[in-house]
Specification:
The structure is a homodimer. By secondary structure, chain A is an alpha/beta fold. The first copy, chain A, has three domains: about 150 residues, Rossmann fold (3-Layer(aba) Sandwich), CATH 3.40.50.1980; about 190 residues, Nitrogenase molybdenum iron protein domain (Rossmann fold, 3-Layer(aba) Sandwich); about 40 residues, Single alpha-helices involved in coiled-coils or other helix-helix interfaces (Up-down Bundle), CATH 1.20.5.1300. In chain A, β7, α8 and β8 form a beta-alpha-beta unit. In chain A, α4 packs parallel to α5 and α7 runs parallel beside α8. Chains A and B meet through α4, β2, β3, α9 and β13 of A and α4, β2, β3, α9 and β13 of B.
């Protein structure tokens, strides 16, 4: 069912790695239209688009206190407790990403260091659609929280009854996000870009979304708003050897395939036998799958590739730069040094992608579409700026002054030189 | 000469903080044209645009080995030694930004960590024009070097004799960059975006440039290329109290003003006396200035603002979010905690901006135009991706399994749940 390749020549890798092309040009004009309307008419435009796209007419775009209290009652105790467990792990891991202040004396008397400061206003986008992605609320809200972002605005499209899924509201409230807005699509991104009477303008927008949201985030950058990472369909690449457990690998491939019909699923191995076994496991497990139709379409476009060696499979994986990489290999930890391009890596037979998607602590907002070559996934870093500081003593400027003067002069920036000369002269007069 | 404000009301801050508007719309079409030509005709297009914009016809776009050897002879020993001193400080500071691997056990048996990997292919843009910015070669090349970027392509426009300034070539060679191309403007950015026969396609483009280069970098993002930071005219904001030395502050303001006619220069103080003294020092120092005409125009648009207190001045500075912030204050280090938005901060009377521009060790590629609110300056982080890894043991998945199952089920992603269930089941069968 997966498309099979055997020992592909390196010259074929590029075409095998190709992701489905997204026609952004077309979307761009639609999204520009939405931006210009929201900029012009603010909340009125948001309500108009919500009626048009989400089929609901809203009085108030902001989720009320009583809706949040109501939501709390609608979520089962068991799910609440699971969300709390996950949130603790995510908090622990993202807490560990705090950078301690290291003062470096680069030259005697010249002290340099960095300090992190929260991005003050951030917007978090949570998609609607079939599944309510409350897990993404954790993945974006917790690091925003740890960073100390002052204002966190959460936007998510309402359902046709004008409601947001209670699990999303419960999760947001759990981590202290109270400013939640019922608005989705490119109009939500436009609102966070320009601000409206109800929705605040933010400095950075994070979160996944469909191709309209993606195009809108790209456009938001032109207005000075930062974004997390460019987006594309979700992906997993599994490298399996003879020690891997076919049923486990099949379940991982399927958990990616069920995401959407455009999900990218790739299996690499040095064993034809294991590929065959995994394929028959896929067929078996597919039968009982809730989202079987979606997974089937995704699988038709997925690929299994046989390589001569695991090293070659890893080289291919680096070339592809998958969002998720599962190393279902004996002594998987021995291969980590060779991984140069991937969003998040799962080692061994008991580290399914689901663990990272929900609860192990790592972030699930990751670079897709080959962007793992040049972008990191979301982390605490995504919510802070790192400001450099320097404190130069009299001794420091005496030590470094001549160097600066020479360089400034060679760049013909004499006022840059003067700023040092005037200090050196004054210090000479002191003596 | 600077425009003077006294005790402005907070409602006026926004208009005082406004940066000069850049008309990007117009540029965009020109730059798109250049991109489409370079994509279509590669090197031929590059040579065409170089003839058109740089007024020189080139045989070869790549700087030859012999040109690099020649350059070495043209740079004075004194300047070479200054560049080496600066490069050691920059290396020391950026080396300190390496992140050590911290393995976090978020739940018993669940191990998560991050590892940094170099972005493999990076492009560095060094502007031409009046001054040869070899210092920027250090600021971008050294962290690229420390990160371990495999391919570093440096582009800089040739002069009308088809040459690149020897100090740029010497500096590039000093830090091991041998792939240097004589191409500038938006055509250089297009070449790095698409690749040509001579110039390699890269994953990320860094470096300053005029508004064409800025627009081109923005456009490059649409083709999947990452960039460092959106750019704008350079800025300094100085906060001075009665203890500051007027001559020093004046020299700092002038060193920013000489950058270009659009440079932003702002002085804040709680003392009218010191503002007056600084102004008369500016007039005095301006007389002897090499780039007097440029500085004068910049100063006409610059502002001095009197505040009731240093705390209020700091609040204004955070609101403005300057690229460079100089705290010419008594006990300046006591104020660092209050600084929330700035690119790079200079403390006390002996830390001129020039020090950070050239040699103290901090990076001089910084967020302008208010982008210090949502972007960091260039650092080692700019040249790496941080990949998350996780290794979950049998105990780990037993501990975490139920949590993942519940959350996956609530998000209606049953295959995600299955990936855990199949493992838990197999472990139960083991017992």
């Amino acid at each position: 069912m997966m498309k099979q390749y055997k020992y592909p020549n390196i010259s074929e890798w590029k075409s095998i790695c190709e992701r489905p092309l997204q026609n952004q040009e077309n979307l761009e004009n639609q999204v520009k239209q939405v931006f210009s309307e929201v900029k012009k008419s603010g909340d009125t435009a948001l309500k108009f688009f919500t009626e048009q796209f989400d089929k609901v007419s809203l009085e108030d775009l902001k989720v009320s206190e009583s809706e949040i209290i109501e939501a709390e009652k609608l979520v089962s105790e068991e799910l609440k407790s699971a969300i709390k467990t996950a949130s603790e792990n995510i908090r622990r891991f993202h807490n560990s990403q705090q950078e301690e202040k290291k003062i470096i004396e680069t030259t005697e008397g010249v002290f340099c260091w960095r300090e992190s400061r929260a991005i003050e206003n951030v917007g978090i986008y949570i998609p609607g659609g079939t599944a309510a992605l409350f897990s993404t609320v954790l993945m974006l809200g917790i690091p925003a929280n740890i960073a100390g972002c002052k204002n966190i605005a959460l936007c998510s499209p309402p359902d046709k009854f004008g409601k947001i899924n209670p699990a999303i509201l419960f999760t947001a409230n759990l981590i202290g996000i109270k400013t939640i807005y019922k608005v989705g699509g490119s109009q939500a991104i436009a609102a966070l870009t320009f601000g409206t009477d109800t929705i605040p303008k933010v400095d950075k927008i994070l979160g996944p979304g469909n191709q309209y949201v993606t195009a809108a985030k790209q456009l938001a950058q032109n207005y000075g708003v930062a974004i997390d990472i460019p987006a594309g369909p979700s992906e997993v690449l599994v490298i399996a050897d003879e020690t891997s457990i076919p049923g486990f690998v099949a379940s991982d491939l399927l958990s990616q395939a069920e995401h959407g019909t455009d999900s990218q699923v790739i299996l690499l191995s040095d064993s034809e036998k294991i590929i065959d076994e995994i394929n028959s496991e896929i067929n078996k497990q597919l039968e009982d799958l809730h989202r079987k139709e979606i997974a089937e379409i995704a699988l038709q476009k997925s690929k299994s590739i046989l390589f001569d060696s695991i090293d070659e499979a890893i080289a291919f994986s680096n070339f592809y730069a998958p969002e998720h990489l599962i190393l279902a290999l004996e002594n998987a930890e021995n291969y980590t040094n060779k991984i140069t391009d991937a969003g998040s890596v799962f080692l061994g037979n008991y580290s399914p992608e689901s663990a990272g998607d929900y609860a192990s602590g790592t972030n699930h907002t990751l670079p897709t579409n080959g962007f793992a070559k040049n972008y990191s996934g979301v982390s605490l870093d995504s919510f802070v700026k790192k400001i450099t500081f320097q404190n130069i003593t009299k001794t420091g400027i005496k030590n470094l002054g001549k160097t600066i003067e020479l360089m400034a002069e060679a760049e013909e920036l004499m006022a840059h030189k003067n700023a040092v000369s005037i200090r050196l002269k004054s210090l000479n007069n002191e003596n």
